[in-house]
Amino acid sequence: MSAAETTTAKVPPTRPSKVPAPDAGAGTRGAGKPGKQRRTGGGAGLPWALLAPCLLILLLVLGYPLVRLVTLSFQKFGQSQLWGFQEPESVGFANFTKILGDGEFWSVVVRTVIFAGGAVVLTMVLGMLIALLLQRVSGWVKTLVNIALVASWGMPIIVATAIFKWLFDTDYGVLNWLFSRLPGVDTTGHNWFASGPQGLAVIMLLVVWGAVPFVVITLSAGLTQVPKELEEAARLDGAGAWGVFRYVTLPILKPLIVMLATLSVIWDMGVFPQVFVMRNGHPEAEFQLLTTYSYDKAFVVNDYGGGSAIALVTVLLLLGVVAVYMRQMLKIGEVE
Question: Rounded to the nearest 10 degrees, what angle do helices 304-335 and 250-269 cross at?
């Protein structure tokens, strides 16, 4: 055997592998995939079929009342129409023209906006402070506070209103008795509902007392997602407690804060039982909010068309709040 034969190795020819022919109708759709993926499920209609019962219930519970509200707001509908003595009469935009030209209506709108704004600000500030405090206390203190928060949150509104009526009672109120023990203060027999602003402040405290637990629990959950490394880095850079909160904690919690603030505005603008029960079912003019004002127009004056128009304007105002919320969330999404 020569040297050339010993240095040159004979490699056996490789067998060509069988490659499956590509699907002619697939085009570039199946490029890079090992094979055809089988579609599972019942197609695009299955999610709608599963959601159909829930959507039907929502349509019946929310859709019909809303359609009825819109219909009544464009009609003359009073007690005669309610009892069937007369047919409802279409009046176009007359109900809206009447309420929008009424100075009392705009006073109620301003009062509602101030009431809701004050309640939201107070709720968010107290909720944030309590949530931050719960991050710095021991476990058993946090447990007790959470139990108290859940208990107050789960208390029925009627029961909470009755307790606040007792606390601020003119003759037997606990707060009058406590304040009278302070040096130079005499609140014996003081009527907290003698004026509208003072009485609405009491009702605002009731609303805040019921809303703070939800904000605290939600923000406490959000604070657990703030990276400790970022807070430590900010402290190493010389930031104090306020700096860490402003430049680290607040930006991370911003989506949650926007959501909570929007929900609080919607809930506080829709406050009804607190005012209605606190004033024994007959709120005076200085205590009227949009919800109670609409109720009085519809069920006290028996002007169901006017009351429906006020309620529809309230819905439009709340839709404006929702639009602002959606815009803020979209901006946050673009930044992220």
Answer: 170
